[in-house]
Amino acid sequence: MKFFDRVLLSLYSLGIIFILLLAGLSAAGWTTPVEWLRITLLHTNYRLVLGAIALVYFALSVRFLFLALSSVKPPAQAVVQETGMGQVRVSVDALENMVRRVTAQIKGVREVNPRVACMPEGVSVFLHVSMAPETNIPGTSDEIQQKVGAYIEEIAGIKVQAVKILVNSISASENSQSARKLN
Predict the structure, then answer these.
(1) pTM for the full predicted model
(2) 175 FRET partner, CA 20 to 30 A, in 5, 17, 144, 160?
(3) In angstroms, rounded to a whole number, what is the distance separating the alpha carbons of residues 139 and 137?
(4) Distance from C-alpha of 75 to C-alpha of 39, rounded to nearest angstrom
(5) By residue range, what is the domain housing residue 26?
(6) CA-CA distance, 45 to 39, in Å (whole number)?
(7) What is the C-alpha separation between 100 and 80, in angstroms, rounded?
(8) Domain match, 49 and 112 both
(9) Total count of domains within the chain
(10) Based on the domain organization, do 143 and 114 belong to the same domain?
(11) For the segment 82-112, what is each residue's pLDDT rounded down to a tens digit?
């Protein structure tokens, strides 16, 4: 929530507290707020002011409702190092790019769609992988897990908790598909 929204919410809350306090005192027997409201509603100018205040409160209520329901999240980051000068962080996008880079070097891997989840103990990597038909899936999966874990720990300094792989498809290389079309 931005600073301006916090200020508005504070003023809104103070106004609601004031209105509820007056309502509570009126319920306890203090009739001055009720008389003031009656006088206000009898005069046209006062009704307009009261209507404008009600309209502002309605608009603020709608705004705060949308702010509460919106799902804008800050980009996820993993803490690499904390020093006396501050923290060093690596974004999830950077970690996903590192995973793509290291898996592109593994024979038999056609396509990788990584997702990285940050946790206090480190990160977990979830991979959707497409492999070539002649690829040994268990062997290649072990190689992916070892290389991804070692690469992230070596380059980013972040402990990798898990590397989970889902093989989505076994696809032929582009060269063999074009060769089949020619024949």
Answers:
(1) 0.54
(2) 144
(3) 6
(4) 53
(5) 3-69
(6) 11
(7) 20
(8) no
(9) 2
(10) yes
(11) 778 887 778 888 899 999 999 999 999 999 9
